[in-house]
């Protein structure tokens, strides 16, 4: 037998032997155990407004970081947040956790709009225009196996104050604030957003909560406009929150929009 023919025969024999061994092992093996690592795709913004925590984003004195403030949240476990934002046409992000049981609320944390190297060098992201923030909190699973976590998401605008056009708006264009032309320096950063939940109050909330937050304190009054959702609303009224209490505002209804002169920073509309 030629050497090349012998090599071919030996090769075929080895393949046959390996195949027989695999079949025998498969027959003797127990059932295959598949670990379920599937992550539950949680629904977003399903719990009532009154049960949601109050979350705000305020620019720091430089406008390069945002201070996230959290109140009326659970006092156990942790809350995870994911911020996605646009910067010069690119998508950037920031992740973090807030341990609810170890700090007294309101809890404030700083979120850098940039990156930090291992050596401590900070690179700020330029051209930020706004984005979204998603929060997740609660036990992963309930006793019955269902998802126990709550997930909420809202969007925010990152705006630069222009005294020649002092109107700032929310991302959904349903909330507008006309500021005084001298209340902020030109290009001061202002954030507009929905604040997830609202500070405890009585009444039926039909619009909001909306808020605006500047890198420096705003003194004086502003003109606030909020568009109402579709449907009939009896006696719609704007309320503002100044940090300690709600205040009822003299409200004007024009078509499907309510307006009022205000001095607060968080607003809702109630109706009978």
Structural overview:
- The chain has about 270 residues and is mainly β.
- The chain has a domain of about 160 residues.
- The chain contains one helix and 19 strands.
- The strands form four sheets. A nine-stranded antiparallel β-sheet has the order 4-3-8-9-12-13-19-15-16, with no helix packed on it.
- The chain is globular, with a radius of gyration of 28 Å.
- It starts with a helix and ends with a strand.
- About 30% of the residues are buried.
- The N terminus is likely disordered.
Supply Rg. 28 Å
How many H/I helices? 1
Distance between the ends: 101 Å
Which class of secondary structure composition applies to the elements? mainly beta
Number of strands: 19
* Unreliable segments of 5+ consecutive residues: 1-10, 26-39
Series of H and E elements: HEEEEEEEEEEEEEEEEEEE
The biggest sheet amounts to: 9 strands, antiparallel
Helix content: under 10%
Beta-strand percentage range: 35-45%
Compute the average pLDDT. Answer: 88
Q: How are the strands ordered across the major sheet?
A: 4-3-8-9-12-13-19-15-16
Keywords:
mainly beta, single chain, 272 residues, 9-stranded antiparallel β-sheet, globular, 5-stranded antiparallel β-sheet
List the helices and strands and how they pair.
Layout: H1 3-28, E1 54-59, E2 65-71, E3 78-87, E4 90-99, E5 107-112, E6 114-116, E7 122-124, E8 128-137, E9 150-160, E10 167-169, E11 175-178, E12 189-194, E13 204-214, E14 222-227, E15 237-241, E16 246-248, E17 252-254, E18 257-262, E19 266-271
Antiparallel strand pairs: 1-2, 2-5, 3-4, 3-8, 6-7, 8-9, 9-12, 10-11, 11-14, 12-13, 13-19, 14-18, 15-16, 15-19, 17-18
């Amino acid at each position: 037998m030629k050497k090349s023919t012998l090599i071919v025969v030996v090769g075929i024999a080895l393949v046959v032997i390996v195949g027989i061994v695999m079949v025998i092992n498969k027959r003797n093996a127990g059932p295959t155990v598949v670990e379920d690592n599937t992550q539950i795709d949680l629904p977003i913004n399903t719990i009532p407004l009154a049960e949601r925590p109050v979350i705000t984003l305020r620019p720091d004195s430089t406008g390069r970081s945002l201070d996230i403030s959290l109140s009326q949240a659970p006092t156990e476990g942790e809350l995870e947040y994911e911020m996605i934002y646009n910067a010069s046409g690119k998508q950037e992000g920031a992740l973090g956790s807030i341990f609810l049981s170890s700090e007294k609320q309101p809890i404030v944390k700083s979120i850098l709009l940039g990156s930090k190297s291992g050596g401590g060098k900070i690179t700020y992201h330029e051209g930020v225009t706004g984005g979204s923030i998603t929060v997740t909190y609660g036990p992963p699973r309930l006793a019955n196996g269902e998802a126990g976590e709550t997930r909420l998401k809202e969007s925010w605008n990152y705006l630069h104050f222009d005294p020649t056009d002092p109107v700032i708006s929310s991302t959904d264009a349903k909330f507008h604030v006309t500021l005084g032309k001298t209340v902020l320096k030109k290009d001061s950063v202002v954030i507009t957003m929905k604040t997830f939940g609202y500070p405890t109050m009585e009444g039926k909330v039909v619009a909001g909560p909306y808020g605006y937050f500047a890198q420096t304190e705003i003194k004086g009054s502003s003109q606030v406009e909020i568009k109402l959702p579709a449907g009939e609303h009896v006696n719609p009224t704007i309320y503002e929150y100044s940090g300690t209490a709600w205040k009822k505002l003299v409200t004007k209804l024009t078509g499907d929009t309510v307006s009022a002169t205000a001095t607060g920073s968080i607003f809702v509309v109630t109706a009978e």
